[in-house]
Design brief:
The chain has helices at residues 50-66, 106-113, 117-124, 133-142, 146-149, 157-166, 173-176, 191-196, 219-225, 239-245, 276-280, 303-311, 319-327, 349-359, 367-393, 411-421, 432-444, 451-461, 472-489; strands at 4-10, 14-23, 26-36, 39-42, 45-48, 71-77, 83-86, 153-156, 170-172, 182-183, 188-189, 206-208, 213-216, 231-233, 254-259, 262-269, 284-287, 293-300, 400-404, 424-427, 465-467. The chain is α+β, with helices and mostly antiparallel strands.
């Protein structure tokens, strides 16, 4: 009988349960259920409903039972930084969401009054974002949050859900690395940072790496789902870590771009890269598979495009038609820095882009086609800037850029990225996170040997699209203009 691996893939807006199986050296995926992940506002705070998510996982397991699928193991990946507090009696608090405003001033308050920015970065190698777990915990301490004050354990979201399924508490390495509490040199939560929050190592579960068994389904879950004592395996609990594990690279000489609403560009390093340059450029070091580090930078991705599409009343509904019109527009006549703070969450993205161009003395784009072209040109040039930083800090030559995630389907932007970076681009897979989750389970079941065997199976299971760089002179000139515009905007 064929073995099936059950993956729970949770994002900040929706979740899925998926089964995957290996057959003749290839992997096949099938979605079982899909459901919303709702942000709930109560008394001025925003929460995730951890119990609703658990309920949806149970529904997915019941669906697998109804299909009579032979489930070998279960793995859970989610977004990063958020966590639950577990009381001494085992009660789980509803987790405050990273979008909650209680952290808006917490980061600067902590860095000014508790520990300096350079010391925090030296200990963790993590980029500074106000919603990182360290600042969430500080904001909760500052407010006298009762759940935290009475917490016997603190569990990150995938670990909390695994606890609900198995009764065992762990702290999975890749999800812990998003917290800005983990020291990548020691592989443990940093005691100085924990002490600064009046926390101890004992308040977190035992540290586990992707591929380790957490436990089996409790008797209560077995009874509810009709399943047996199925193992729950720690996968790369952070969804980006799972996605990077699925990059179908042939060797280590690659960079990756996880492309979606937000873009994450980076490399896979054997050791954390923590130095003056990485600090100044605000790069991050997050945990990866088999002891690797994901050295990367967050970039504003298709957020700009998605927000503008909501405003365009005259644009074609089809992405292909809209983008085809954009490509007909003159190249590089309007450029923006996609990561400028004015694009974080403006009331009108269209007006924000036009204002940026006006302030920098450029042609002000009008209409959906010109604005879309501005976004794509600018994203490709920003990718080049970050890619250049990576080539300067990597310990190996970068010969190819792998684009994974939903953005891997955007052929126009993929070609622009190849042209801009001057490197071959391979696009796919779109379902990187689920593939990485399932392949770690397959490794735990001895179906594959190691990370590179995982990647060979994935590469053998799909057809990658190849984009070769062209028009070097034009893109070199555009990049120079891009740098001048960024400097002018300040």
């Amino acid at each position: 009988m064929r073995k099936y691996f059950f993956a729970v893939d949770l994002g900040a807006t929706s979740g899925r349960t998926i089964v995957g199986s290996l057959n003749d050296g290839k992997i096949e995926l099938e979605e079982l259920t899909r459901f919303p992940n709702n942000l709930i506002e109560v008394n001025g705070h925003f929460y995730w409903d951890i119990y609703a998510l658990y309920f949806e996982i149970i529904k997915g397991l019941k669906a697998a039972k109804q299909r009579d699928l032979d489930i070998t193991s279960i793995g859970i990946d989610t977004w990063g930084v958020d966590f639950v507090c577990v009381a001494p009696d085992g009660t789980i608090s509803q987790p405050i969401a990273y979008r909650d405003p209680h952290t808006f001033d917490a980061m600067e308050d902590y860095l000014e009054n508790v520990m300096s920015r350079d010391k925090v970065y030296d200990a963790t190698g993590i980029q500074f974002l106000n919603f990182n777990s360290i600042f969430q915990l500080y904001a909760m301490r500052r407010a006298g949050n009762s759940a935290l004050n009475n917490a016997q354990k603190i569990l990150f979201i995938p670990d909390a859900l695994s606890y609900m399924l198995t009764g065992n508490m762990v702290c999975e390495y890749t999800i812990a690395s998003t917290s800005q509490l983990l020291n990548p040199r020691t592989g443990q939560l940093d005691p100085r940072l924990l002490a600064s929050l009046s926390l101890t190592q004992s308040q977190f579960g035992r540290m586990v790496n992707p591929g380790e068994m957490i436990g089996t389904l409790t008797s209560a879950v077995q009874k509810e789902t009709g399943l047996g004592a199925i193992p729950v395996v720690a996968v790369a609990g952070h969804d980006t870590a799972s996605a990077v594990a699925a990059v179908p690279a042939a060797n280590e000489n690659f960079a990756y771009l996880s492309s979606g609403t937000w873009s994450l560009m980076g490399i896979e390093s054997k050791e954390a890269i923590i130095n003056k340059l990485s600090y100044e450029r605000n790069f991050t070091n997050e945990g990866g598979i088999e002891g690797t580090t994901r050295f990367l930078k967050n970039i504003c991705g298709m957020w700009l495009y998605e927000r503008c599409r909501k405003e365009w009343t005259d644009a074609p509904q089809s992405h292909a038609e809209l983008q085809a019109e954009a490509i007909k527009q003159p190249a590089f006549q309007s450029l923006i820095n996609p990561d400028d703070e004015m694009f974080a969450n403006p009331s009108s993205m269209v007006e924000a882009i036009q204002t940026y161009c006006r302030k920098t003395g450029q042609h002000v784009p009008e209409g959906y086609a010109e604005i879309c072209r501005c976004i794509f040109d600018s994203l490709a040039l920003r990718y080049r800037q970050v890619f250049t930083y990576l080539t300067e800090m990597a310990a190996f030559p970068i010969n190819v850029l792998h684009i994974i995630g939903g953005g891997s389907l955007n052929n126009y932007l993929n070609q622009f990225t190849a042209n801009s970076c001057g490197v071959e681009v391979l696009a796919g897979p779109q379902e990187g996170t689920a593939l990485g989750n399932i392949m770690v389970q397959a490794k735990a079941a001895n179906e594959v040997r190691d990370l590179w065997d995982m990647r060979r199976v994935i590469a053998n299971s799909l057809e990658l699209k190849r984009f070769t760089p062209t028009d070097k002179t034009e893109w070199d000139a555009a990049y120079k203009k891009f740098e001048e515009i960024i400097a002018k905007k300040g």
